[in-house]
Amino acid sequence: MAALFAGPSVPQRPDPFEVLSRASSRLRRFNDLTKELAPTETSDIRVLEARLRSGTSAIESGRQALQALAELKIQKRMPLAGIAEHENYVVSHLAVAASLHYGSCEQMLERKLIKELGRVPNQRAELVVLSADAIRQQQPEPWLALRAHLLDALAAMEEVCQRVKSPMTGLRPSDALRNNLPVARAMMGSCHERMQTVRGILVEIHSKKLYDQAYQYGLFEVIDRLRELEEIDSLRHAEVGEALRHVVEVHLECMSSTGHSLTPERLAMYKSVVVDYAEMRGRAGMQLCVDAAALIEEGGHARDHLWATMLDLAQALTDQRQAIVDMCQFAVQDRQLIGAAVASPEQRPASLTTSVPTTSAGKSSRSRKTRTRTPDVSSWRQRPRSGSSMSAALRKSRPTRY
User: Fold this and answer.
1) At 373, phi and psi to the nearest 5?
2) CA distance 267 to 331
3) What is the pLDDT of residues 106-140, one digit of tens each?
4) Does the residue 226 lie in any domain?
5) Where are stretches of biased composition, namely Polar residues (predicted)?
6) Model confidence pLDDT, tens digit, residues 311-345
7) Domain span at residue 289?
8) Which of 26, 50, 90, 263 has the most crowded CB, counting CB atoms within 10 A?
């Protein structure tokens, strides 16, 4: 009888100790297995897709472990020294997982660029021209999936940096993790660069699709707007290419933290060139969407299916613009870090104290450690290959006609 009046049962949450143990084990197993496979590069897309899925799962396990550790701290079920030790262990493994996941993303990107888009391996960025026909054969979904994987790797590395700088317990992080912060920053810079490539290709895919649909319905105003976008690239290709080259190299200089090739003023100049390019494309893209929307409305329901293509292109252009801005801001932050490491307080230029918006990995309970069992982090000491993937503006297709 009492059961009739009992309230609804509340599902019992897993014990944080169990979550911490299981998630940490999954993360460690992924790292151990992937480090054995990582030296063997593969062009088999199914193998790469499986690695990417496993990487996403491992990064999620790392986040679950850190969340469980935060709950144990709030519940005061573990001494601070124990929390610091476990946090150091999990964050170290998360850094390795993020590095390995980024490596899989890089392999997938290279595979698609060479096998599907016809780029010559090791071709200089300035010489890359992607075929319009090759772009037309692409579907956006695989590129959107690759973009999501890069975002996962980037967010995980941001999480690592944040937790090294702001430990959960307030205790000093391990020297191994602190010494690898420049490596994490360099890898984040490479993620921004690869992200720019992927986003640029998505713009091209949607541009070609809209062009073909506009041509079919005789919407020549839309075609003219699309050609304006192409003209911006053609006219500013050399200038923007040079500026991008300097911007994306800054994060690699953070590896040594001992010197820099650009003054803050020169970097600001290059940043201005790249951001101005992004803004010009943004304005042209906005006008394109306004004109396309008006023409689609005039055509009635017969042109309804063009809406989806136009909105996809608008989103891709917005995403690309933000990627360029993020990449430039990240380079400025790296330049400030390098300058702060080599300049004395009296010599440090005023620009080093300028506030620059930072990207955040998301909500996280703060965390770090004093003494710990640290996994091998040598795998994320590998220098990212700047030349192996180009920024989107340089990878963009620039055929003489659509």
Assistant:
1) -90, 110
2) 8
3) 999 999 998 899 876 655 444 456 788 999 999 99
4) yes
5) 375-391
6) 899 889 888 888 888 878 877 776 665 555 444 33
7) 15-352+365-377+390-395
8) 90
Q: What distances in angstroms separate CA 164 from CA 11, 94, 186, 238, one per listed residue? A: 35, 12, 16, 40
In a domain, 3, yes or no: no
Question: Is 115 among the domain residues?
Answer: yes
On the question of pLDDT at 200 being above 60, the answer is yes
- pLDDT recorded at residue 19: 95
Burial category of 345 from C-beta neighbours within 10 Å (exposed 0-12, middle 13-18, buried 19 and up): exposed
DSSP label at residue 330 = H
3-state secondary structure of 129: coil
Crossing angle for the helix pair 45-74 and 16-37, to the nearest 10 degrees: 150
pLDDT, tens only, 9-22? 556 788 999 999 99
Q: How many domains are there within the chain?
A: 1
- What does the pLDDT read at residue 340? 53
Of 175, 178, 152, nearest in space to 163 by CA:
178
Using only C-alpha atoms, what is the Rg of the chain?
A: 24
Indicate the helix (H) or strand (E) that contains 257: none
pLDDT of residue 190: 86
- In 3D, which of 334, 386, 359, 358 has the Cα closest to residue 197? 386
DSSP structure class, residue 397: -
What is the model's pLDDT at position 310? 86
Q: Is residue 385 part of a domain?
A: no
For the CA atoms of 324, 329, 333, 334, the dihedral, rounded to the nearest 10 degrees, stands at 10
Nearest to 282, CA basis, from 327, 228, 235:
228
Check if the beta carbon of residue 260 is closer than 8 Å to that of residue 339.
Answer: yes
Query: Helices marked H in 75-139 — which ranges?
Result: 80-115, 132-136
Residues 345-355, mean pLDDT to the nearest whole number = 33
Cβ contact 345:196 at 8 Å: no
* pLDDT tens figures, 238-289: 888 788 878 877 755 654 454 556 778 888 898 889 889 888 888 888 888 8
Specify the pTM: 0.76
At 367 the three-state DSSP class reads coil
Residue 218 Ramachandran class (φ > 0 left, ψ -120 to 50 alpha, else beta): left
Residue appearing with tokens 């703060």: 366
Q: Both tokens of residue 238?
A: 């050399």
Structure tokens at 187: 């890898």
